[in-house]
Amino acid sequence: MKALLAPLLVTSTMAFSPTPRTSPIKSRLSMLPSKNSEPSFFPFETTESSSMFRLNAAPPKSNEEVSDGSADVRQLLGVKGASGTTDIWKIRLQLTKPVTWIPLVWGVMCGAAASGNYHWIWNPFDPNDRDVALGFEDAAKGFVAMILAGPFLTGYTQTINDWYDREIDAINEPYRPIPSGAISEGQVIFQIWFLLLGGLGIAYGLDVWAGHGFPTVLALSVFGSWISYIYSAPPLKLKQNGWAGNYALGCSYISLPWWCGQAVFGSLDRPVYFILPILYSIAGLGIAIVNDFKSIEGDRELGLNSLPVAFGVDGAKWICAGSVTLTQLGVAAYLYSIGEPTYAAILLALLLPQIYFQATLLLPDPIANDVKYQASSQPFFVFGILATALCLGHHDFAA
């Protein structure tokens, strides 16, 4: 999910590509609104080109704006085909890309399920899980954790990513709020700090609420926020390297919210609680590649070594399909090995339609079918993650 999550939440000693070339797009940036006098704020560097954006510029109309009546909704969700707007609050929301909150919110749910300690308000399947007061408290904790993972830390991740992608967006998506001049430099920086500091405050509050001796949720949030920063910002800019960037993205969208949800309701006291989310992050790497297909032109022009640039479209699409499929086969094998054949069978059943959509959408034309493939395949993938989490919460590791 250009993100980190982000938000929330992998560093590695991988080599990074050279600093991206900026000269090819100077002519495009020169057509942006004239320089304003907005101040800059440390640590987010500003350049002459970044100061060219001004508030209240006439909203450009995307060349790809849809005509099916959904353009306004797409603007609020932060997806392609959106309409233009001068409403600053709609622009702020668009920068956070609400459509990308969903995997993080789902990850928190999976972590709560994996803890085995989430209580329903009134569980129809378990007469021992019908404490209404405890159920309401757990529902409130879960909701706050979702707000942390979604609007705040994913919103922070998406906003900072758009800030550091303003030059490449001038090529790929010039109608985005920052390169179009629909929002000022100062307003973007304020939003970044507000979401980051607000998210860290919420994380600490969850630690206090859960009675943690060590602030686990805060530590995860700090780590995830740092990963989000180095994913987008120089000099590291993990997204310059296809392997490091896409794995960081996958980890942030799967592992970190899972660990957050599990820490709020339980503990991270077994290696498997780390291993399985990390394995699923490998599949997340494959899913992240799908988002790179649409920006291959700008990535190549700016020297960003995304996997579609490094391996070509044909090579990258097979890496995508292979990582998603092999990871889930491995997880299913593990579930079977610990005596959970039913959950293993459920995971395999959810994998079959994903393979079908790979064969019919992803592999034939990943660029034309990127959105359709994700919409068709990913629901089965995320339900597979939930099935795995429920299995961990159900399984008696002491037996």
Automatic annotation (TrEMBL):
Keywords: Chlorophyll biosynthesis, Membrane, Signal, Transmembrane, Transmembrane helix. One of its GO terms (biological process) is chlorophyll biosynthetic process. InterPro entries: Chl_synth, ChlG, Prenyltransferase_related, UbiA_prenyltransferase, UbiA_sf. It is a multi-pass membrane protein. Its main location: membrane. The chain crosses the membrane at residues 188-206, 213-231, 243-260, 272-290, 343-363, 375-393. It comes from the Eukaryota. Residues 1-15 form the signal peptide. The keyword RNA-binding does not apply. GO terms for cellular component: membrane. It is found in: Membrane. This is Chlorophyll synthase. It comes from Cyclotella cryptica. The lineage of its organism: Eukaryota, Sar, Stramenopiles, Ochrophyta, Bacillariophyta.
